[in-house]
Please model this.
Amino acid sequence: MHKHSALTWLPLPITIGIMLCGQIMAKKAGILIQNGSSLLNIFSLLSYTCLLLRGILWIWVVRKLRLVFAYPVLSLNYILVLAVSSLLFKEAITVFNAGGALLIAAGVILTGIGERYGKGEI
Model:
């Protein structure tokens, strides 16, 4: 069993939050660009800033947590983007989107269980 302090775990949800913000900023930048704005608008710059911060934090995360655990947890970002895109941008959520989100959630849960209780390694 792996024991980690809060300082070890905290960067992982922060990384997911920064990824989510970056995706929202990228979508808003795309909308502005489609409406005639420059490629370098405030939202595209914020999106790139989020990308840089996420990269720095990700290095911290993989130094402290096993990659086979941390990487699947990042897929929770898909579920968050699905929800936020529906709320902010009025994008439709299909049965397939919802089903995929449930499969992702199940995979992350199984990964967490395996990390906590799993003895055998592949």
About this structure: The chain has one domain: 6-117. Residues 24 and 88 are 9 Å apart (CA to CA). Residues 6-117 form one domain.
